[in-house]
Amino acid sequence: MTPLLTWKKIIGVGLFLLLFFLSLVLPAKAATTVSGIQKQEDPSRTRVTVMLSQPTDFSVDSSGQRIDLLLAGASSDSTLQALPEDGTVVRMTLIRRHNDLLVSMLMRRPPLRVSAEALNNPARIVLDIEWIGDDAARPGIAFRMTDVPSRRGGTVALHLQQQSPWEDNWLAFFRDYRSDWDIRIPQRLTPPPPLDAATDSALLPLQQLADEGMFLSLLQSGMAFQGVNAEERRQRDLMMGDAYLRTGSYAAGLARLGALRDLGGDEQIRVDYLTAWGEAARDNAIGALLHLQIHLTDVSEDHPLAGPIRLLHAEAALAASQHQLALDLLREEGLSWPDQLEEVRRIRLADALAGLSERSRALSTYRELADEPLLCEFYYASCQRAAHAAFQTRDFEFSRRLYQPLALAFSREQGADMIHFAAAAAVFEAGDPDWGWIGLERTTQDYPRSEGGDRAALRLLDIRMMNAQETTIAAMAGEYEAIGKRSQIRTLREEAFFKEILVWFLAADHQTSVNRLMRFRRDFAGSPLRREANILLSQQLPIVVEQLLDQGNDLQAVVLVEQNRELLLASGYDRAFLNNLVRAFNRLGLYERSSRVLLYLFNQSAGTPDQKDVFLPLAQSFMQRDQYLAAGDYAHQYLSQYPDGADAGALFVLLIDSLERQGLDAEISQRIQHRDRPDTPEANLRVAAIHWQQDDFAAVVNNLERAAAVQSLLPREQARLAESYYRLGNVPSSLRLYQGLVDDPDFSSQARYRSAQMLLQRGQRPAALAQLQALIGDDANSAWGKLARDLLIQLER
Predict the structure, then answer these.
(1) Among the listed residues 725, 673, 732, 729, the one whose alpha carbon sits nearest the alpha carbon of residue 697
(2) Band (571; pLDDT cuts 50, 70, 90)
(3) In degrees rounded to 5, what are phi and psi of residue 116?
(4) Could you give phi then psi for residue 45, rounded to 5 degrees?
(5) Alpha carbon distance 106, 444 (integer Å)
(6) Highest taxon of the source (predicted)?
(7) Which residues are paired to 47 by β-bridges?
(8) Comparing C-alpha atoms, which of 187, 179, 181, 178 is closest to residue 419?
(9) What DSSP assignment string belongs to 488-555?
(10) What mean pLDDT is reported for the chain?
(11) Cα(66)–Cα(139) distance, rounded to whole angstroms?
(12) pLDDT digits over 70-82, tens only?
């Protein structure tokens, strides 16, 4: 083997090994997978954590309310769920960009600062979004969102945003409220105008069959028709295509029409018109609109089919829910309509107005056409639209008038259950409760487990609820629950669920009502009844929290408050509720959670009267956590803003306590000597205690006397005042107070000894001896007892 071949082999083996090892190494750099996204909230910051399968490069871009996190070489896990819309996030979107993943968040307001950090074990990226200002403020984008109320300042305004017409009369909700319905009745198209063959045509027999409406016979005869030329064959195929469409064989008719090509002139217009009519008839309204717009926009106004084509265009637009297009076509200026189509045009005009929610204008036209048989004997969908619009505008008599012929025409057809329910409901509301009740009951029997049957059952239950005795109300909650569980219609489940909740509320079972409301808000976040649910929940929260606290269920109470703190802000809360809440946190030892909830309420109620009540419990919660500086800051802030506030005295005491814990004696001296400090009993008692420690008995007397002028002093405070009087030489006042403490178990010894001393000074030796002997007999070994024994010995000498 030559050296050259040897080197070639060595190089070849080396390349092979290199490629082999590369194949092992390169797959190890697999794409990073985002496995989860979590969010944590506190009043000043939102933390978003993006969990990764392995570390990766990233970049963060923030502009206004949008925050974009770009992850290099990343993809999302198949089970990954973006953060839902809430009070902080408007929308989160996950977007693939080549090999990268963009996590884009639209926030409800612009953040003050956005920072990000990559962490390991496990791999994750943490975004800290820092806020500024009032959390309750909504950004500009929120005004364009359909489910966000307009921004108004203050708690009172928030409460106004939550007002409901049933707030003061929830029983009327059963009478007035019913979720809207949509009865699906296929829209009938206006039939095409008849074909006209020449009188000398060989196709005259087919024309006669068409004129007599014998289209099946026309099809049979047309198939056997022989001996015709090419022109007559095309005419025969056109007539057969028309017959197929009129008999419901849309595919066969369209196929027959599709074979007719390049006809030109009126025949081509007829073919295109029938083709569009067939597409619309087989529920392909979009296809019909496209065909009309492509082939039939240039038909002259004097053409015999101009009116039918324009009407078909409007009917196809209605079928495609393009109501404005239909209205424009039917109202186009400068166009004249054939007399035979004028009534249909007006029906379709009212349909378009109803579709645009212009019910009053639509009903005006419907009423003009109500006596014509065409409306309720052929155009069933239009009749239903008219009846529904009348029901929505509370014209129940007109609704009843239209629904009743529909109910006679429909028994087992599509939408029959809903038509019979609507007819019975209209009869009841029109002032005929007996026949209305019978109609509703028949609907439940004839159409069980259908939307109409369930709506009828719900309406019957509403009627019973309005007439029920207070003692039997609670029994109906289970019936509402059963309807909500079996119904296949979401809006009906919402209505039944909320009415069940309302039954528990009216039955004064507030805990059950609140529990069900919490589930309702989770399951039906976008419900039109969310406003009523929030109001009902906010009305019952203080009641249920107080009940839970009385039952000893402190943890359930505080969890309930934490879950619904936004509603508490919107509806307001009183001091008693706040005190009960703080008491529950303290009994559980959850001081940190207490501070978090109170801090949230404090920050969210900024600029409102409610914030004033949060200062004291918030400062107390920081004291309990040994955060004396923070407690003192809130106390100082309150005293600066509300020097005469109801909590000024308590917060002054708390401020002094926090300064004492920090060893700031000089500042304490300044605070207690300040002329504008609170002059309340608790403040004076705390200042007196400080002066007592300093043996400043005149200051003790001054402060305790001011406190005693407002409230009774405790025995300890009476003893301090009595001793201060004694040290200042005010014997009568001291003796009077000490004699009142002779029988007190804590201060009896001191009171007897000092009383004996003062009695001796006043020359009342027997009384003094009696006090000393009583003290020695009861408490000889205490300091006061020993002093009494020494004094007695001196007196005997």
Answers:
(1) 725
(2) low
(3) -140, 150
(4) -155, 145
(5) 47
(6) Bacteria
(7) 40, 128
(8) 181
(9) --HHHHHHHHHHHHHHHHHTT-HHHHHHHHHHHHHHTTT-TTHHHHHHHHHHHHHHHHHHHHHTT-HH
(10) 82
(11) 12
(12) 888 888 887 888 8
Pairing of strands 74-76, 32-42: parallel
DSSP state of 474: G
Least confident of 109-113, 205-209, 353-357, 383-387: 205-209
For position 20, what pLDDT does the model report? 54
d(CA 139, CA 108): 6
Q: Determine the Cα–Cα distance for residues 324 and 305; give it in Å rounded to an integer.
A: 23
| Alpha carbon distance 277, 238 (integer Å) | 14
Whether the pLDDT of residue 742 is over 90: the answer is: no
User: Do 406 and 384 form a contact (C-beta atoms < 8 A)?
Assistant: yes
Name the 3-class secondary structure at 334: coil
The set of residues, in sequence order, having a beta carbon less than 8 Å from that of 378 and lying 6+ positions away, is 188
End-to-end CA distance of the chain: 139
Indicate whether this model's pTM tops 0.70.
no
Grouping H, G, I as helix, E, B as strand and the rest as coil, residue 336 is coil
Cα angle 177, 179, 180; round to 5: 120
- DSSP-derived secondary structure for 196-217: ---TT-TTHHHHHHHHTT-HHH
3-state secondary structure of 459: helix
Q: How many CB atoms lie within 10 A of CB 132?
A: 11
Q: What six digits make up the tokens of 388?
A: 């529904």
145-149, 295-299, 389-393, 526-530: which range is least confident on average? 145-149
Task: Give helix then strand counts, H and E, for the chain.
Answer: 38, 9
More confident residue, 194 or 449: 449
Task: Provide, rounded to the nearest whole percent, the portion of the chain with pLDDT above 90.
Answer: 20
- Alpha-carbon distance of 492 to 455, in angstroms, equals 7
Tokens 């079996």 sit on residue = 486
In this structure, which amino acid lies at residue 544?
Answer: V
Helices 490-506, 451-466: axis angle to 10 degrees equals: 20
Predicted pLDDT at 797 = 66
Write b or e for each residue in 158-185: b if 16 or more Cβ atoms lie within 10 A of its Cβ, otherwise e: bbeebeeebeeebeebbeebbbebebeb
CB atoms under 10 Å from CB of 530, counted, come to 16
CB neighbour class for 456 (10 Å; exposed up to 12, middle 13-18, buried from 19): buried
Tell me how far apart the alpha carbons of residues 332 and 314 are, in angstroms, rounded to a whole number.
Answer: 11
Q: Considering just the CA atoms, what is the radius of gyration of the chain in Å?
A: 44
| Model pLDDT, residue 403 | 93
Query: What sign does the CA torsion over 367, 370, 372, 374 have?
Result: positive
Q: Which of 17-21, 379-383, 437-441, 593-597 has the lowest mean pLDDT?
A: 17-21
State the pairing for strand pair 66-71/124-130. Answer: unpaired
Give the separation between CA 79 and CA 762, rounded to whole angstroms. Answer: 93
Residue type, 774: A
pLDDT of residue 641: 87
Helices (H), 551-590: 554-563, 565-571, 575-588
Alpha carbons 499 and 507: distance in angstroms, whole number: 12
> Cβ of 207: how many Cβ atoms within 10 Å?
19
